[in-house]
Amino acid sequence: MRKALIFTIIVFTLSAASHADDQKIRSKDDWMAKYDHASFWDKAKLIHVISELPEPLQTELVPELIKMLGSKDRSIRLASASELAELGKKSESAIPDLLDKFFVKNEEEGAAYSNAVASFGKASIPYLYDALLTEDRLVRDRACNAMAKVEPDRFKPGDCFYGKISREECDALDGEWGRFGLFEQDLCRLPAPDAGNACIDSSNCVSSCVTGDKVPAGTKVVGKCYEKTITLGKCLNIVKGGKAQGVICED
Fold first, then answer.
1. Using one digit for the tens of pLDDT, what is the confidence trace for 56-75?
2. Which domain covers residue 152, as residue numbers?
C-alpha cells in the first residue's frame, strides 16, 4: 500500500511539473528554446502542446510546424502534420506543404498527410482538385482519399474524377465550366486561392508560377501564382527556379 502511494505521488508530481513547465511557454522564443533542448522523445510532445497554447501563439508557431514537415525524422514530420490539422483554420496556409508530401512512398505516412489535408474541409477543395490532375498516380490516389472525406456524398476512395464536379457547383465556386486544351471532358477551372502571390517556381503555387509574356527566357524574375487552377489551353511564360522559361502553350 505504501509503495503504491509513493508511486502515485511521484506520478502526480511529475505530471504537475510537466504542466507547470508548459505554462512557462509564453512566446515563440520560449517554445523554440524548449524544443531545441528537448530530448528525442520530448520533441514530439512539445509539438502536440502547441494546440493547447494561447491562440496568437498557435498562429505564430504555424510556420515552424510547416518547416518540420521537412524534418529527417519521420515521427517529427507526422507529429507536425497532426498538429497542423488540429489547429484547423489557423493553419490553412500549410495545405500546399502537406500536399507536397503526397509523393512519399510510405503508405502510412502518405495516409497521414492525406487525412491532415482532409481535416481542413472545404478550404482544401481547390488544392485537391488540382492534385487530381497530376500525372503521379500516388498523388492522385491520396488526393482522392482526402476528397472522399471532404465530399463523401460525391467521391469515394479510388473513385475520383475531376469532372465529377457539376456545372452548378462550379458556378457556385466562381469557376469556369468547359473543355480546356485537348481534354475531352468538361472540367471546372476554379480561381486559384493563392493567385497573385509572389513565387519563383510552380511548386510555390496551387497552379503555375508565371511572369509577363515579354520577359525573355532565362531572365531572373520573381513571378506570380497564376489566377486559375487549370492552365490547359493557355500560353504562359512559366517561371522555374527563379528564371523565365519563355512562353509555352499547354494542350
1. 999 999 999 999 999 999 99
2. 95-161
CA 21 from centre of chain: 31
Assign 3-class secondary structure to the chain.
CHHHHHHHHHHHHHHHHHHHHHHCCCCHHHHHHHHHHCCHHHHHHHHHHHHHCCHHHHHHHHHHHHHHCCCCCHHHHHHHHHHHHHHHHHHHHHHHHHHHHHHCCCHHHHHHHHHHHHCCHHHHHHHHHHHCCCCCHHHHHHHHHHHHHHCCCCCECCECCHHHCCHHHHHHCCCEEECCCCCCCCEEECECCCCCCEECCHHHCCCCEEECCCCCCCCECCEEECCECCCCCCEEEEEECCEEEEEEECC
Higher pLDDT, 159 or 145: 145
Give the CATH number for residue 107: 1.25.10.10
Distance CA 78, CA 71 (A): 10
pTM: 0.59
Q: What is the dihedral of CA 17, 18, 24, 26, to 10 degrees?
A: -160
List 177's β-bridge partners, or say none: 188
Instruction: Give how many domains the chain has, as a whole number.
Output: 2
Answer left, alpha or beta for residue 158, where phi above 0 means left and psi between -120 and 50 means alpha: left
Q: Which of residues 161, 189, 211 is at a domain's end?
A: 161
CB 249 within 8 A of CB 235: yes
What integer best gives the mean pLDDT of the chain? 84
User: Residue 206: how many CB atoms within 10 A of its CB?
Assistant: 24
